Task: structure prediction
Amino acid sequence: MTRRPPSGAPAPQAGSGRNTAGLTADRVSWGVDGRLILDGVGLEAPAGAVTGLLGPNGSGKSTLLRAIAGIRPPQGGEVVFDGDDLPRMPRRTRARAVALVEQDASTDLPVTVHDAVLLGRIPHRPLLAGASEQDRGVARRALERAGATGLADREVTTLSGGERQRVHLARALAQTPRLLLLDEPTNHLDISAQLHTMRVLRLLADDGVTVLSALHDLNLAAASCDRIVLIADGRVVAAGPAQEVLVPEIISPVYGVHCDVLTHPRTGRPVLSFAPASAASAPTQPVRPG
Amino acid sequence: MSGARRRGPVAAGIGLGGVLVASLLAAVLIGPADLSPAEVGRVLATHLGLNLFLEPVGLGVEPLSAIRDGMVWQLRAPRALTAAAVGAGLAVCGVVMQSLTRNPLADPYLLGLSSGASLGAVLVLVAGGAAAATLLPVAAFGGALLALGAALGLAGALGQVTPTRTVLAGLAISQLCSAAVSFVIFWSVKGDAFREVMSWLMGSVGSATWVSVAVTGIATLLLGTGLMLCGSVLDAFTFGESAAAALGTDVQRVRWGLLVAVAVLTGALVSQSGSIGFVGLILPHAVRLVTGARHRLLLPLSALAGASFLVWADTIARTVFAPRELPVGIVTAAVGAPVFAFLLWKGRARA
Result:
């Protein structure tokens, strides 16, 4: 049932004509204590598109994002972005091109939102220098773009989970990345904030940024991603346009649930509906043929 | 607003620098021997070679008697300067350790440095002999470095050097050394040696000489300034080490480099003053409550505040019950803790 693209073969392209720009990972592996967390992952995230990284808990989404960002460099395989070999790039050069919004990054230190966002400028200035007027301008625009301007003078420790997520997004935007990696950026967010975040990602993609975001919510991915990469147990199970990956034959076995795919009445995008796997034997409606 | 925000720190730095100079002068003036400011001025002018400039304009000064001169130049001046260097160095080390380990309880002695130094010092004091005075700082420094090596070796042997592993390895080594120190004291220290050992263990700049000034001053100027320049590097750790790595920081190299720099600086300070508590633990928190967590600001202001603080603490320690001297560690805690409690209370609305 599962589709596993042959190793090394490029996955289907969403936006044609942009084949050279964007992110390509090939046979990426990473393990700890003899346990392989990533087992030969290959994926493509084209520039100017929002690519969703889906998979059950513990499938390796966060590890893959960290491997691409160079925080835990891959032990095998290749990661190429816009023609550059990411793992072998000098750290600071890489940090000027790639930003990562982590899950649950927190601090106990008394730091204001404005200063937290300014941290994103560190790779852009000499090691010993302080923030310049230009850095402050970039930080202000990043706050604006993430919808967090009103928070600028607050202390990070006083923010709610959702506000903090916005600040982390703004901090990543202040890095002015060409590749933006996000690890479940909509966690802790209410639905309006979730949609706002995905709209920010869409605008970035429209500006030519390559966006790869791990997401927990399959319907949010269905509504807002151009392409989906689905991983399970450290391997890619399926990759392609959202409509081709988010189908019952692929989703049901990976998540171990019964799945129906409907069509959104307003947007025409797929809407997924779930039932426990035991209910799959007696569906009330016929499963849509794949 | 943003303009004032950037001028503020410079003003604060200049202000604290002025406070430090004033504190040093006051520390040299204050004391039981009834030296007038004019006399102290004469001593300083004589030793700093100011006569070279003063004599031609008819303001030349006569040197004081050898005893009174010695009191200023051989006792109070090196003592005040050593206190300033130790205070500044400990404060900077405290900030760096707290940021690196992301642990508010971290202090410069975290990696077992003070226990290692104490073990070295106590062994020398117990052995006694003519060379003890010369050997003591060397033994203390050696003990500190051995403890550091053992702690980092243990942390490294556990796998990647993470903050938690660093803290726990330091804890293990420091407990081991403390036990050894207690054992040596329990087994073999009697009478006068006991007093001497206790005063060393509680920390003091009472026996500071110009050698102490040179050791602590050079260590603080070189390593402390180096650490102070790492403000942006430490800022990158605000949201943890993966965040730092994502900002282009070589996390492992930075951690090792800074830990070793802190350890060598702390070792040099401990070798001259023993382990003085509070300055490296609470003072960084106090300054952070006022300035916020930006390290480019926090580090230099902590250094200046730590220097003035320890100069005053030592002045109080030697004068308040004169001629008896208090261990300076008692004063740092007795004066500092209420101030810190006040700052916590004042900042309650923010947290």
